[in-house]
UniProtKB/TrEMBL annotation:
Belongs to the immunoglobulin superfamily. TIM family. PANTHER family: T-CELL IMMUNOGLOBULIN AND MUCIN DOMAIN-CONTAINING PROTEIN 4. It holds the Pfam family V-set. This is Ig-like domain-containing protein. Residues 1-86 form the Ig-like domain. It comes from Oryzias melastigma. It is found in: Membrane. Residues 108-137 are annotated as: Disordered. The keyword Transmembrane helix applies. Gene3D superfamilies: Immunoglobulins (2.60.40.10). Its main location: membrane. Keywords: Disulfide bond, Glycoprotein, Immunoglobulin domain, Membrane, Signal, Transmembrane, Transmembrane helix.
Length: 137
């Protein structure tokens, strides 16, 4: 829903340590994030790379959960997002694309946020998350 928060999934295996990553708006280039929303050094978010406080990593970075939470989501937040985990070596990065659709809905209607994800070198996956606007205290 417009005004709510949505979380775009992204995880990586931490067996080789904490790894720098970035979230990008739109398609990625071969050299990294160009339209960076936020980035980490593998341990903490680099505040100089965060474009807005609406973009948060609320998961456990130490467990490889670098899912992007967008607070107060708006219709113009709809579009493609990319998570890039910067695995050392040539062409080793893990990349996941998420296509986000945000729509207005009445408080009594359940809406579906459809997130199609794909990973480079792996098969395409899709996931759906349902949300219901609830009262806030």
């Amino acid at each position: 829903y417009v005004g709510e928060e949505v979380t775009l999934p992204c995880r990586y295996n931490v067996t080789s340590g904490r790894i720098p990553m970035c979230w990008n708006r739109g398609a990625l280039t071969t050299i990294g994030c160009v339209n960076t929303l936020l980035a980490t050094d593998g341990s903490i978010v680099k505040e100089e790379k965060r474009v807005s406080s609406r973009y948060q990593l609320l998961g456990r970075l130490d467990e490889g959960d670098v899912s992007l939470t967008i607070k107060n989501v708006q219709e113009d937040d709809s579009g493609m997002y990319a998570c890039r985990v910067e695995i050392p070596g040539l062409f080793n990065d893990e990349i996941r694309y998420v296509d986000l659709s945000v729509v207005k809905a009445s408080p009594e209607v359940t809406s579906s946020v459809s997130a199609s994800t794909s990973t480079t070198g792996q098969t395409q996956q899709s996931s759906n998350a349902n949300c219901r606007k609830g009262s806030r205290k």
